[in-house]
Amino acid sequence: MQKINGEYHQKGVDTLLTMGLSSFKIDYPSINSIILIACDSDFVPIIEKLKSRGINVILYIFQEKKRNSIFSTSNHLLNSSSKHVELTEEDFNSAK
Hints:
The protein is an alpha/beta fold. 34% of the residues lie in helices and 22% in strands. It has helices spanning 14-22, 24-27, 44-52, 75-80, 89-93, and strands at 2-4, 7-9, 33-37, 56-61, 83-86. The strands form two sheets. Strands 3-4-5 form a three-stranded parallel beta sheet, with helices on one face. Strands 1-2 form a two-stranded antiparallel ribbon.
C-alpha cells in the first residue's frame, strides 16, 4: 500500500511478491514461518503452496466492513492462512 494525499492505494507488487515467495523454501530452507500483510485473494495459491511445503503463513489483514471497500478480505484468503491477525487503522496511523 502507498499513502497518497491521505488515502491508501495499492501499488501492484503482487506478482513480485508471488515470485519471491515461490522459491522461498529453496532460498531460505531453515525458515518455517512467513508473515504476509495482504487482503488480496490472489495470494491464496501461493499461500497454499507454501503451506504444502511446511511453511506456516501468518496473514496480517486490514479490512473495512463496508460495501465496495478497497480493503475487503475474502473468506477464502482468511481460510488459506495458518493464522490471521486483524490490523486496525490506528496500527497504520501510529506507524513511523
